[in-house]
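Ticket #4471: structure export looks truncated?
Reporter: QA, pipeline team
Priority: medium

Steps to reproduce: submit the single chain below to the structure queue and open the exported record.
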Amino acid sequence: MKIAILGSTPIALETALRFHLHGAALTWYEDAENFFNFTSQGLNPDAYISDVGLGVLKELNLSYEASEFSWANWKSHYAKPLTDYLKAYQEVKSDEVVSITKRFLAPGEVITGRSRFLDLFRLIYKVNPKDFIEEQRESNPETYERMTEEMLKSLANTIEMFQDYDLILDMRSDLFKASASASGRALGESRASDKVSYGLEALEFSKTLRPGPDFREIGLVGSDSLSAEILLSMEDWIREKHSRLFIVTTEEEPFNNFLAVADSKTRSKLEKLFQDIDHEFELEVDSFTKKLREWQELDDFVQVKIPRPAEPIPRLNYFSGHNVSAIDELIDRKRMFMTLEKPEFRDGKKHPENNHLDLKTIGVDHILVGHTKKNLEVLTLDHNEAGFFALIPTRPNVEGGWSKDLAQLEGIEDEIFKLFSPASSH
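Actual output as written to the record:
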């Protein structure tokens, strides 16, 4: 059987190893996605490894040892040697996948008396022309010598090529860019500037964020595992007294769902951050209450000369149960503005004082969007297509994620073996 495996996640590596050892001819399409920016979690030393991988390393006279888990050690001593091993026997590509279709069948088309599995999958991908030319120079020098200068110039643009497969195993994560609106699109979002970051890009940006006058107020959209990772990555920025973060989420109790499944180390860090910020705000409220009482006790003619104490604003400001309806940028390009709405069927249990207005607009220096999605734009297939298998890898800061992924992969293996058993008819 000829298989295409999509994704650069740890479970994609595991999938490629297993099906190589099963004797399949496979092409592994790696891409730019990765989990390596997830660093809040306290993973076990044996995270993202398997008996299969360790067995291959042993045959190569290599070993992987870890008293504690680190991405750098895992990449250098586990993932890289296994990927190099696969490259010696199978195709491993970094090319972008453009589309996955059936070779001849239209979506929903039925073959009388036969399964759609009869037709192969066609995968179209982009090829970097420079890499292609170098490949020809090394693998087929005679052909390279016959290439004219005009032909080389014609290869200056990206080339699209295709291969056909019996099976597609989609192991890509769900960390692709999605709208700031949970419903799918916010008004004006297509004009969003470099002051809006999405998904993994938002996580990378949060790691570079430092306190300063250019970034006093930030908007964070979402409260799932990626948003939690973003929040912890910008902890130093949040703890600076002039910083303020607006958290906008459809969840009625922000981060409640994530905390229920979070890795223990991530959960502890997040809960401590919330407790520290809440305690700090309580102290500010107590101080404000004392100053206000003292001000109110002053004579009227003295009050006129002394400003009323300013009421403190929490540095973690929640708009729970809300949607982002619009994103706007003023002509001076200094601030971004989010318009927020809360439907009647959702409650905003965190900071309910923000629920009163039907519409509210907040201005921030940058927006970090935690909403993500699975990249389904490349797929044009029938629903529940025979031979197409998808697994969304569990994010690293979720408890027991690797074990869950391995169990799902074993289930996919079982289903694939059924397709190729003698009793099957296609």
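Status: closed, not a bug. The export was complete when the record was re-opened. Leaving a note from the reviewer for reference: The first helix runs from residue 10 to 21.
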